[in-house]
Design brief:
The chain contains 7 helices and 21 strands. It is α+β, with helices and mostly antiparallel strands. The strands form 3 sheets. Strands 3-12-15-14-13-16 form a 6-stranded antiparallel barrel. The protein is rod-shaped and about 135 Å long.
Length: 398
């Protein structure tokens, strides 16, 4: 009987021990160790959970996921400036002689060709020159007829040789005066055909035509019918500028100035032409730093073959100062600026659970933001819908 009781006690103890293990029991040492391990593992899990968002199938449609890839980012400098006319190819058009303006033939903004009439004046100087020309033509005609008559008389010895020689001298003098008179009128811009008509009709035309000296655009007009103008008297009646090449005027920070050199290529973007780029070169760099702004003047020639640019337009110009750098990049919509100024992206491994990660960003180029720190090439990030994820996290936070 004692043997049977002992066996029953042992079986009962073993059964109790098995039940203890089935319900999760353990020895005090093992239980404490497991609890500590569970606590340590829970710390990063809780931190990740606070910055993570799980999306439903319907919410996933608002997010686009792409792997981080390398992109070429140019090493360049930027500056803000304004467009202006090329003063090296801008000329003020004055009248060569005084007189009253009769008519105007071009307005501000008109494109004109070299030799095209800008305005006309009633010139007393031209009238005097044409009158002298007409008189010289009359004297030449008279002396020519007289010479022919004396030559006929000399054949019959009706006149002396002295009289004939005097007539020849007078006729040659008249020819010289006529040539001088034609040259004097030609200076006013009259053509040989117009001079011939003046001589033939014996009628002076005091209208002086003032043409454009270059191909370009009328940038200023300070004239009106009846205005008396004189050579070199400011303001000039017209100003014409060649607009095939415009100027970009900018002030760059003193710290950036060593990166700029004459001859460097520049690329200009303007708000008036989104998506367009105008090319040019740096032509002038200021010799001093502005003591008030601590900036350096930089001027560039910008090609404008279609004559689209206007003086006063604001724009940004970029110059490349080194070879491009290949680095990880993320679409700009995938980078979110937080309230504290930090920049974050949303990383995912399964395209459903997204975790916010702080990154350090660089320059923006062709829609991609350079990532200096925070993610690696190949990691999956949200390139669209990052702001949606940030809002979802803020909404879910207690």
């Amino acid at each position: 009987m004692k043997l049977i009781i002992g066996v029953v006690v042992v079986v009962a103890a073993l059964a109790a021990y098995g039940v203890w293990h089935l319900i999760g029991g353990s020895s005090p040492d093992v239980s404490a160790s497991a609890a500590n391990a569970s606590t340590e593992a829970g710390k990063p899990s809780d931190a990740a959970a606070r910055d993570s968002v799980d999306l439903s199938d319907s919410q996933l449609a608002s997010v686009k996921v792409e792997p981080v890839a390398d992109h070429d980012f140019p090493v360049d400098k930027e500056a803000v400036g304004s467009i202006d006319f090329n003063e090296d190819m801008e000329t003020q058009v004055f009248t060569p002689y005084q007189g009253k303006i009769i008519a105007l033939y071009a307005a501000i903004g008109d494109d004109v060709k070299k030799g095209q009439t800008l305005f006309t004046i009633d010139s007393p100087d031209l009238l005097q020159a044409e009158s002298t020309l007409i008189a010289a033509a009359g004297v030449l005609e008279l002396t020519t007829r007289n010479l022919e008559r004396l030559r006929e008389l000399y054949k019959t010895l009706a006149v002396s040789q002295h009289d004939l020689e005097q007539a020849i001298s007078d006729q040659q003098t008249a020819e010289g005066n006529l040539r001088a008179g034609r040259d004097a009128v030609r200076i006013f811009g009259k053509t040989d055909a117009e001079i011939d008509r003046i001589v033939a009709n014996r009628a002076a035309d005091p209208t002086l035509i003032v043409p454009s000296p270059i191909d370009g655009r009328v940038t200023a007009r300070n004239a009106g019918p009846g205005l008396f103008v004189q050579p070199g008297a400011a303001p000039a009646p017209y100003t014409v500028a060649d607009v095939n090449v415009m100027w970009m005027l900018a002030e760059v920070p003193e710290a950036d100035s060593p990166a700029f050199r004459v001859g460097q290529e520049v690329h200009v973007t303007l708000s008036a032409f989104p998506g367009r780029m105008f090319d040019g070169k740096i032509t002038t760099i200021g010799a001093s730093v502005d003591p008030n702004t601590r900036r350096v003047f930089v001027r560039s020639d910008i090609n404008d073959p279609q004559h689209e640019l206007r003086a006063g337009m604001f724009g940004n110009f970029v110059i490349q100062i080194g070879p491009p750098v290949r680095a990880p990049g993320i679409a700009s919509d995938g980078v979110v600026r937080e309230g504290d100024g930090t920049m974050t992206v949303w990383v995912t491994a399964d395209r459903r659970r997204f975790t916010k990660r702080t990154v350090k960003i660089g320059e923006l180029h062709t829609g991609y933001r350079r990532i200096l720190e925070g993610v690696q090439v190949g990691e999956l990030v949200a390139t669209e819908g990052a702001l949606f994820l940030s809002n979802a996290l803020a909404t879910a936070s207690p």
